[in-house]
Amino acid sequence: MSLIRNVGTIGGLTAISRVFGFLRDIMLARVLGAGGVADAWQLAFQLPNIFRRLFAEGAFAQAFVPLFNRRMKEDDDVSEARRFAEEVLAFLIPILIVFSALALIAMPWIMGLFASDALQGDETTFDLAVIMARIAFPYLAFMSVATLMAAVLNSLSRFAAAAAAPILLNICLITALVIGANLGGGEEARRQTGFMLAIAVSASGLFQLVWLGFWALRAGFKMSLSLPRITHGVKELGILVLPAIFGAGIYQISRFIDLFFIATLPDKSITFLAMADRLNQLPLGIIGIALGTAILPSLSRYIAREDGQSAFRLQSNAVELALLLTLPAAVALFVVGSAFTRAFYTGGAYTPQDSMDTGAVVSALVLGLPAYVLVRVLVPNFFARKDTRTPVYTAGISLLLNVALNFYLVPRYGVPGLAIAGAMAAWCNCALLYSILALRGYYHLTPLVLGRIFRIAIAASLMGAVLWYAMPHGAQYYAGTTLERIGAVAALVALGMVSFLAAAVALRVVDRSTLNQLLLRSG
To answer: What is the mean pLDDT of residues 3-8?
Structure first.
């Protein structure tokens, strides 16, 4: 299957999940508002969710897929790969049980590390946050096993089931919010909604595990449980996973650091960041996850076969496609982010000023959007070669820069300062990863690709100028009726797409040869 088809399959289903997630956050804004219970919920949800992205979808998937693919035979004999997956599963389950038990016991202390002064000062709301986090934390264990199933399916080129699984999370949360919205207003109703949301999180993890297990069986990949043993494969995975936690998870580690700094900021700050990140996650999740997931199995197979030319071509196509999709998205969100937050979030318990503050965070977050996606595209080149140390070093340097910038920017600019620091650190990480790949001769940007990237940037800038001029003309509609809001946002989106496509065609950003390359089979 070609890269563009793989990305289209994963990206399309991820887009549906992100749209459901966006609807979820719109409902969260109206039902819980900002501050108080809303801040407590955001913190309770982010703890297992960040761990999931860091350990399960980040480090574990990046380390497991190359090892699994090396054990797959050319004639589709998966017996050795199945044995490896069973060994990993047997070792993974006890670790998850012990880790989850310790986290549940230590949750009051963990919550105390990240809770703001305002949240800790309200004993009732703080206790609620601890209870919600405990109820939601089993989600991590369910999703870690589900990630193993997803990695197997992706390695078998069955991308759709894994890409569709996160939709179940958002369906469960939306269901809880619909019930909560019918409880009436008031603090007690918001507290009950928080409990239901926490239950929905853990339930969704179980549903996703069952969903992926079903599709693994449909693919003919049946795994059996056995007693845990430290086999050669498990040792090899452990050696890769430990540094991968840091190397592949720079974004999530920076989120943990952000939580420390948010604790020094006023009430509502964590809600503003979470709501802004939803808009940032739309293109980041759709494009970054799709590209990173699609190229890792193919890169692993090319490198195992010592087919350097095909690996170079695949990496080049992925970089070009990443920038073709993320640069215009970043420019558009930077310019019209506040219009989107006013249109989507204002209402119920979420005030117009809350929406404006959220919009400022969106504009800061998207400064790093192309870099975050490029990191996801470049890191697989190291993991496919079983090199997990290099991403550790680059991520460590970027993380130190992030912390240093936080100390300078957060006291001056608040939550937008956090976002700017993270964006600058992401660009640093991206530059280091690319430089090392080029120095080692694994990958470099050719003059042809550089020329296309330059034209993409010019086209995105022209689109941004058009949106900058047009946005004030719809100001009266961004907080109007539902139809007025939908119409205003749809007009901005349509104008952005048309202006970018017109500029892209005029500048010959994508020509027939590029499309032919992207449509070639990726492995």
So the answer is: 58
DSSP designation for 185: S
β strands within 37-131, DSSP E: none
Return the structure tokens found at 23.
Answer: 């609807």
Q: Give the whole-angstrom CA distance, residue 284 versus residue 363.
A: 14
Measured between alpha carbons, how far is 295 from 304 in angstroms, rounded to an integer? 14
- Tokens representing 239? 């050696």
Q: What is the pLDDT of residues 277-317, one digit of tens each?
A: 878 877 766 666 666 666 656 776 777 677 777 778 888 88
Residue 290: closest CA among 302, 280, 282, 279: 282
CA–CA dist 462, 444 (Å, integer) = 28
DSSP state at residue 350? B
Report how far apart, in Å, the C-alpha atoms of 214 and of each of 59, 145, 196, 223, 380 are. 24, 13, 27, 11, 28
Dihedral of the alpha carbons of 278, 48, 384, 236, in degrees to the nearest 10: 180
Q: pLDDT tens digit string along 100-159?
A: 899 999 999 988 888 877 788 888 888 999 999 999 999 988 988 888 888 888 777 777
Q: In the numeric block, which tokens belong to residue 330?
A: 């970043």
Between CA 325 and CA 471 the distance in angstroms is 22
Instruction: Let me know: does 62 contact 75? Beta carbons within 8 Å.
Output: no
- Retrieve residue 112's tokens: 């105390």
Question: Locate tokens 């919550």: which residue?
Answer: 111
> Any idea which residue has 């986290």 for tokens?
103
Tokens of 206: 């179980």
